[in-house]
Amino acid sequence: GPTVAFAGVTKSYGATIAVDAVTLDIAGGSFVALVGASGSGKSTLLKMVNRLIEPSAGRITIAGEDVTTTEPHALRRRIGYVFQNIGLFPHMTVAENIAIGLRLAGTTINGRVAELLALVDLPADVATRLPDALSGGQRQRVGVARALATQPGLMLMDEPFGALDPVTRDQLGVAILALHDALGLTTIMVTHDMAEALLLADRVLVMERGRIVADATPRELLAGE
Ligand code: ADP
Ligand code: ADP
Q: Cβ of 179: how many Cβ atoms within 10 Å?
């Protein structure tokens, strides 16, 4: 996956500074966790990468290219995005939900959907079901499959395990890590759960009041405690 760089990135809402002059380089292919209390600015920092939020100041580049020079829809085809309560359309089948970002002929789509379901370890027969007929963990896997449909090199995840029970959470964590490795993705994951960050990421950034106050590997963090 591509490198991602933040240079003096700030986002303010009136008097609230959600992200405060963050400068940061994320190496291509790394798995970075953004950890911190609620309101520390994690989601805001993440959503500026795919332009769901525009910075008040500063610059974000992906593989050296300024995100503001890329049209948002084109940008989002290159960036997978997974969030809590994944927002599958309830009246559309799993296959239709996964294929929503694809612009392919119907027959080609069926093959691609089958590949994507296999990638996230879901049985092929869920393709024709509605999201309500799946478990929470299965729905979240469909969300991951949808995020991977356009073969992005960069994956953004905002509390991807938020609503899941501990066992399902662990299983999905293992699956996401395997996909990260197999596809060579650059992954940035927001979580309030340090244990999850230590388990999955190879670099942990701790945010507090819009700033990055710690930047270390899980090994370093564990040794320091
Ligand atoms: P986190 O993801 O760490 O919980 P957020 O990035 O959601 O934090 O929020 C950071 C700060 O910005 C918080 O103080 C939050 O209240 C504020 N904030 C976020 N979005 C908005 C918004 N749309 N309008 C006003 N304030 C916002
Ligand atoms: P809001 O901020 O209004 O709650 P969301 O950020 O949840 O909106 O996004 C709304 C919908 O847009 C999502 O359900 C998702 O399907 C789609 N979407 C948002 N961001 C992306 C993205 N980066 N790539 C693909 N689809 C996206």
A: 20
